[in-house]
Amino acid sequence: MLDRNALLFIGLQFGSRFANSFLVTAARYELLEAGGIFQFAGAQVATNVARMLVSQVAGLLTDNFALKRMYVASEALNLVLAVAMLACGQHHSRMLFALNIGLGLLFAFSQPVTKSMPPAVAAAREDLAIINGWDLTCDKIGRYLAPFAYAVVSSSHGFNFAVLLSCLMYALMSVLRMMVTVLEPASRRETKNGASQPTVAQKLGGLLQQVVDGVTSLRRDKVLQLLIINTLVTNVFLYPLNSVHFPVLFKQVAEREKSELDRTVVDDLLHQVMLALDIKRKDMWRNYNALVSLGGVAGPFLSNAMIYMLESYSTNHKVCQLWVGVNFGIVGQISTMALLAGMVLLSSSFGSGSLVFNLVGAWIVTISVNNIVTTYFNSISQERLQQKERGRFIANIMTIFNLGSICGSLLFGWVLSAHENSVTGSVNLLLCGLMIKIILLVLLRREGKGTFSGGSRPHSD
């Protein structure tokens, strides 16, 4: 049973992730209204660039400064940004652009801090796995629940009320974070064998070399190379579909329905639910998009059930669980990308209710198979890399994946703003990613055959 300090830390992790996603959603949705598609996509690109740079620096600062101070300060700075958003309002696109980047920077800065804290807040070493597991679950639920909550609150009570609510959440969490007991690690400036440790400035100067060394160290393992490329393809060709294309798609669907009287039973049902929640017609597209994102909450639960089935299959057939899991996951990714491409291509023939219902189901399955790939990818990397290589490996692949998100947001933003038929452009990008994944799966089966052994159980990311 976890003690009160650990439970408080877990609860604040959920609250902080929820509040960050809530406020980021506010900035993004209003930016799409005030600044248009290109600024909407550009803000995500700029945020990912900033995150890529800040996360490396934040990791070094976490090793050299008091965790408790950085933990509290990061939430207090979020409160400052929330107050600034409340003051500037929803019609200043440049300010919303800057605040969106600022929230991304603070989130990237806080991640190394909070991910380093479980050993400092756990009462016993045996609690670490439980704390880490709940931390991941709360992160994903908060991330996908917040857009839906913002859409409902802003549609019913307006932008200012929603941002005021986030200000109150950040103020409360800043106070509660001061109540968390943190066991600070020993200073990294202590000497070892008479030699002083490198200063923060010296470590920062070696960042580029660290990235280069980490990338070149992967040359010896082609399986890891292929899995990294596979996840990179997901970040370029799949996730921007949800973050960039879906909001634009639902906005177009909502506008098209204003002049159409023929709606299906499902469309009417969804429309009646929106009216019952006192959601204005002009704001319905936000709720449609939020409902699809909400499917991401169910995805991790479905993936956990699938993993148990995969483990049972591997045990009964005496094959390596890691090999079965990663192959199943990538085949699932290929299938869901094909399903999403078909749905987006036919989106003009669906009403709002039918489109939302189908995309929610497709997105649940998409998130679940992506989680399976991530889980087994983590397990394979932990099995093949030495302990001293893992931290650098994680930092470097996160940099690569951020670059992928940048490229994906640029690509989808370009096809949406440059082409009249934006659906065709997005479908072509999905099919391009699908073909690359098929090639990667063939190469993975050729390179990986005979290199997997044992029955290691997968560890969740």
List the main descriptive attributes of the protein structure presented here.
461 residues, mainly alpha, Growth Hormone, Chain: A, 2 domains, 17 helices, 0% strand, disordered C terminus
Secondary-structure map:
Elements: H1 4-35, H2 37-62, H3 67-88, H4 93-115, H5 118-121, H6 128-157, H7 159-177, H8 200-205, H9 207-216, H10 222-237, H11 239-257, H12 265-276, H13 284-317, H14 321-345, H15 352-384, H16 387-418, H17 422-448
Helix pairs in contact: 1-2, 1-3, 1-4, 1-6, 1-7, 2-4, 2-16, 3-4, 3-7, 6-7, 6-13, 9-16, 10-16, 10-17, 11-13, 11-16, 12-15, 13-15, 14-15, 14-17, 16-17
Main β sheet profile: none
CATH topology tier name of the largest domain:
Growth Hormone, Chain: A
Instruction: Tell me the distance between the termini.
Output: 23 Å
Provide the gyration radius in Å: 23 Å
The CATH architecture of the largest domain is Up-down Bundle
Write down the domain tally.
Answer: 2
CATH class of the largest domain: Mainly Alpha
Strand content: under 5%
The count of helical stretches stands at 17
* Tally of strands: 0
Show unreliable segments.
188-193, 454-461
Using the alpha-carbon principal axes, give the shape. globular
Class from helix and strand fractions: mainly alpha
H/E series: HHHHHHHHHHHHHHHHH
Mean pLDDT: 78
Residue share in helix? over 70%
